[in-house]
Task: inverse folding
């Protein structure tokens, strides 16, 4: 097969009639009447166009992602200063999040309070508390019953900055009522020996709005139950819960013999389902679902000063994976009650914390 040596051949006449380079060698003609010389280059021009489109698309998506990150970060209410917590245990494997559902009615109208069966109590208390551990052995979700019998240790007042206490034995939710999130973190760390890395709290309205923003959460109930005080009325089987129903579901405890212990199990199941559907492609890739869901949650989410959208996303993904093969959920192990409050099984708690800190699979059971 002949080859071109790169020199112009004025004796050659292309079909268009001008001197130049033979078109079969793929060199473009400078002459518009050359019928063949440009043909080999058409695919290359199309390739360059596709490349430019792809680069533009990547730049646009990257810009949108960066903008979304800073938008989300600006909406986070970073009100909890964990640097003020004293006498903290050493950090172990992974990341520990203290997740709190409060009974805050902030921003709710009287009609919303009525619809959601929240009542109208002033202030706010903890309605649920969980530790989510995201570590080498997979995620572990541990519910802390609000009636747990704990000792409130000495602490630094969140407003005065003065050292107070210790306050003695009381219910766990009393720590939050007494001095807010920082004392709750201090109390959890002192009674477990587990270092808390991040804090996240959502109120009644924020929780219900998130559920509504993603179009509801699918749940499959083994049996139905009613709880007039929480506004719950559920049948057994598959169903999609809206925000009002979801709030009633996670708050119900009077319908169960085990009361708060059964409620915490339902909370774990629901939060895992909520995280799974929030992280699903149908939500993440749909801006008409993603941004309303993010906005609904971020508007009422109170976090620590070191929290950011990256850690928040990791928290949601770990929550989603709790029900997977590598995940585990349990109540804090108990061994009876003291004055009507649940007494933690100290031996099991110690073993549980050691396994979490060492990145080992959790083998501790919450069964008596």
Result:
């Amino acid at each position: 097969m002949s080859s071109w040596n790169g020199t112009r051949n004025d004796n050659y006449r292309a079909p268009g009639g001008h001197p130049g380079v033979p078109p079969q060698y793929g060199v473009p003609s400078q002459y518009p009447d050359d019928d063949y010389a440009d043909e080999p280059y058409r695919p290359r021009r199309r390739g360059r166009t596709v490349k430019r489109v792809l680069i533009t698309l990547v730049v646009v998506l990257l810009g949108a992602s960066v903008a979304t990150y800073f938008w989300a970060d600006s909406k986070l209410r970073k009100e909890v200063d964990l640097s003020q917590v004293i006498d903290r245990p050493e950090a172990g494997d992974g990341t520990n999040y203290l997740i709190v559902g409060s009974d805050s009615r902030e921003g709710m109208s009287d009609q919303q309070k009525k619809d959601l069966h929240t009542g109208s109590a002033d202030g706010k208390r903890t309605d649920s508390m969980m530790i989510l551990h995201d570590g080498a052995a997979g995620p572990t979700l541990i519910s802390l019953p609000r009636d747990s019998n704990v000792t409130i240790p000495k602490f630094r007042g969140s407003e005065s900055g003065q050292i107070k206490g210790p306050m003695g034995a009381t219910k766990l939710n009393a720590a939050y009522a007494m001095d807010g999130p920082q004392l709750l973190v201090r109390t959890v760390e002192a009674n477990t020996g587990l270092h808390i890395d991040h804090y996240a709290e959502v109120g009644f309205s924020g929780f219900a709005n998130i559920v509504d923003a993603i179009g509801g959460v699918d749940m499959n109930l083994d049996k139905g139950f009613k709880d007039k005080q929480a506004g719950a009325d559920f049948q057994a089987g598959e169903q999609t819960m809206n925000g009002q129903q979801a709030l009633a579901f996670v708050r119900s405890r009077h319908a169960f013999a085990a009361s708060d212990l059964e409620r915490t199990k339902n909370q774990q199941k629901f939060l895992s389902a909520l995280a799974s559907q929030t992280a699903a492609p149908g939500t993440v890739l749909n801006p008409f679902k993603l941004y309303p869901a993010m906005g609904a949650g971020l508007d009422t989410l109170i976090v620590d000063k070191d929290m950011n959208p990256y850690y928040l996303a990791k928290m949601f993904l770990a929550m989603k994976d709790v029900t997977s093969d590598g995940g585990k959920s349990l109540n804090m192990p108990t061994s009876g009650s003291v004055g009507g409050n649940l007494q933690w099984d100290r031996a099991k708690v110690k073993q549980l914390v050691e396994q979490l800190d060492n990145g080992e699979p959790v083998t501790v059971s919450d069964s008596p």
About this structure: The first strand starts at residue 9 and ends at 13. The mean pLDDT is 82. DSSP finds ten helices and 19 strands in the chain.
